[in-house]
Amino acid sequence: VDKLERASGFPQLASRVILYAFFTAGIVCTVVGNFLVVLAIAYYKQLQSPTNSFVMSLAVADFLVGLVVMPYSMVRTVEGCWLFGALFCRVHSSLDVMLCTASIFHLSCIAFDRYYAVCNPLVYHLKMSQGRVAFLIVVCWAVPLLISFGPIMLGLHKAGVDMVPMPPEDACVFLVNRVYAVMASLVAFYLPMGIMLAAYWKIYKAAKRQAMQISAMESQFSAGVGKDSSKKQRHRNAMRRERKAAKTLGIIMGVFLLFWLPFFTVNIVDPFIDYSTAVEVWEFFLWLGYVNSSLNPFLYGFFNRSFRRAFMMIMGCRICLKCCSSVEINIMSGSSFAFQKSQRSKINSQPKCLGFL
After folding, report:
1. What pairs with residue 345 in β-bridges?
2. pTM of the prediction?
3. Which residue range is the domain that position 293 belongs to?
4. Is the Cβ–Cβ distance between 207 and 245 less than 8 Å?
5. What distance in Å separates the CA atoms of residue 39 and residue 252, rounded to the nearest whole number?
6. Which of 14, 156, 209, 259 could anchor a disulfide with 292, C-beta 3.0 to 4.6 Å?
7. Do residues 251 and 304 lie in contact, with contact meaning Cβ atoms separated by under 8 Å?
8. Domain-located, residue 356
9. CATH number for the domain that contains residue 193
């Protein structure tokens, strides 16, 4: 009997260790990656722009998801039960809803910001003033706070839920009634998704229209003299970078839809099918959504040259102190994603490493 127990217990222990290692790696990537984004924008003035204000606030939300939400979800997923008490279960659920919703709201604000930058550049500074950017960031945090802590801590999210059998007390299952499921999903996901899709569709049409204009301009310049070639090249390079920036945020938007759409679809459907969705499906879709918070800093670092250089300078600060002063960081323009040469600024002094780097 002892041999059988040991034989059956070892695979379970090994699988739990593997799961803990896998989830821990994801949590570390989420925390470190988003911390680098916050540090880069806070430390380098060249990266401080209206767009990057949203990016920084987004990174804070994703950083908190990795720091205060994912570790406890990891223990619940691996152990199959909740070990932290009923009160903290409600607090954890509230933080989960709030921070994930805040992350989604920030992505919609970034899309809104890019819409004005690309489609209405002449009124961009008027529409995206410092006061308006600050107001939108406050909204990105206040609305998720209202739809999470209030209803969940008061138990309104599960009022009228009649599930048989009810889950055990140590399970920390986030059950919601039909009204909360529909309303919260609409506010937290489907409304921001609609804003993002509309904004990126407008950006795509504007980029396509501008590309046609550039093509017509090149046809006119083709018969001209060499003095027009530099102007033509500047227009071509500017539009190429503009389209690349729109494509980059489009990829970020696509990743967001890929990882969050399954969860919010099940979240709405489950109350109408008597909560018959398997726990394993819930956990899988939830962690799929968490992955979005892990990928955002890598997407920025991979596609954005400004962030990529800032990350390299931060991570290699001790090694590259002598050469840091010669490295340039391109400004992410407030009115355009084009990295204009006129907005390029050299770092005049060596960046001081923080104590923990």
Report:
1. 329
2. 0.80
3. 2-346
4. no
5. 21
6. 259
7. no
8. no
9. 1.20.1070.10
Q: Helix, strand, or coil here: 108?
A: helix
Q: 98 with 304: CB under 8 angstroms? A: no
Residue type, 237: N
CA distance 115 to 168: 48
Q: Is residue 353 in some structural domain?
A: no
Q: What is the mean pLDDT of each run of 10 residues along the chain (357 residues)?
A: 46 87 95 93 88 93 96 93 91 95 92 86 86 95 95 89 68 88 94 90 78 67 56 64 65 84 94 89 93 85 79 68 42 38 38 32
If you ran DSSP here, which 8-state letter would residue 166 be given?
Answer: P
How many structural domains compose the chain?
1
3-state secondary structure of 328: strand
Phi, psi of 277 (to 5 degrees): -70, 135
What's the pLDDT at 325?
42
Closest CA to 93 of 62, 63, 68: 68
CA-based nearest residue to 178, from 159, 194, 193: 159
From residue 160, alpha-carbon distances to 117, 264, 344 in Å are 46, 21, 59
Query: Does some domain include residue 351?
Result: no
- pLDDT value of position 209: 75
Per-residue model confidence (pLDDT) at position 142:
96
| 354 assigned to some structural domain | no
List the Cα angle 169/171/174 in 5-degree steps. 100
